[in-house]
Amino acid sequence: MKLSVAPLFCCLLIPTAWADDNGGLKKDTAPPPPHALDEGYRGTEDARIMTVEQAKEMHDGATISLRGNLIDGSGDKYVFRDKTGKIDTIIPQSVFDGRTVKPDNMISINGSLDKKSTPPVVRVDRIQK
């Protein structure tokens, strides 16, 4: 039993001795300061909500996130406005989840752009006050 454990133990140690230092994180240089970054993910600094103007230029089926106000509408059809313009939205009552939204309430909506409709509409699947 002791003889079979010793060769096994040696086989596990040998590969680490032959491993060469080709990849992974090398900590020999300091990272650039945050203000010098020009590409890549930077967390909440990069997260931004698009405008209605930008949303209208997106492709059909694009995921849309907008921040502004619901200014008019009833049933499932509403008009959403931000500082750059207006866009029609379709918001099922289930998305409101019992919440009341007034025209002076700033809200965020998430959904998908339907450019097959004329004019384009956003099919909203989430509202956040």
From TrEMBL:
Chain residue ranges for the region called Disordered: 22-43, 107-129
Bias type Basic and acidic residues, positions: 113-129
Signal recorded as keyword: yes
SUPFAM superfamilies per record: Hypothetical protein YgiW
Protein name: YdeI family stress tolerance OB fold protein
Signal sequence annotation: 1-19
Keywords, alphabetical: Signal
A Pfam family that the UniProt record links to this protein: BOF
InterPro entries for this protein: BOBF_sf, CarO-like, YgiW/YdeI
Domain of life of the organism encoding this protein: Bacteria
